[in-house]
Amino acid sequence: MAVVATSTNAEMQSEELIKRQMKKQGIRKDVDVTQLYLADSNLEQVTDLSRFKMLNHLWLNGNKLRRINCLKVNYRLAELYLENNQLVDISGSLGHLTSLRKLMLQRNQLTKLEQTVREFRAMQSLKVLNLFSNPLAQEKEYRLYVIYHVPSVELLDRAEVLKEERDDGRQIYDQEREVLKQSIAFGRRCEGPPIRGVSLMELDDHSDFDPRREVANNFHSPPLANPEDAVTARAMKRSIMQYSVFDWSQVPKFEERRQKGPTDPVPTPQVITVRFK
Asked: For residues 28 and 49, is the Cβ–Cβ distance under 8 A?
């Protein structure tokens, strides 16, 4: 019973702060509350805020909160300030707040990078996110991990997200997509058809070859008596295609890279080139 009483007293403290604010601003109805400032109030718990359906901005920074259990149906929240608390886990607490545009979580005690970032994946409007001064921010490739898994973020830890960082994140965490992308991007048609009797390697050195002359001469060439020679001649006139792809098989996955030391070398993908007709 003592625990229940303590919890109730902690929630009553935030309830009193809310009543004072509403009275000061002349607000009588809960539906008219769009902002609540409960920062720097030494709060350990916050009363359920579900009755404030139109709540848009909420300041809870500078308290002693270890978990967030007060935002069950506050779907309209656009800005949430939770910095300078004692939060150890936000799993299941914020994922439903899909209208958030700004989320401040710096200077807490969040340690689990994957579970924390999972809360942001449905927040397609989230533009500003702060996670610095948490233990999870010390993990290897932390910034690229967050950028890749929360693609809507434009400002992370007070630094603008660059296109190069997004590309690096995709190369690390979506290697299958990158392999497909690189295979398409590097595919190209070689200039001109091959010359009969000339190997592919020799073809690269014949820059003065005019494909129009070869095509024009074909109209006046007599038909070949031997069918095999005709097939060979036709095959030699096909376009040469060249594809280059990255071989990622020797590059360690994300989990493997995190287990390596900071000074351990990371292999780079090798380029494999294939040419065919």
From this structure: no
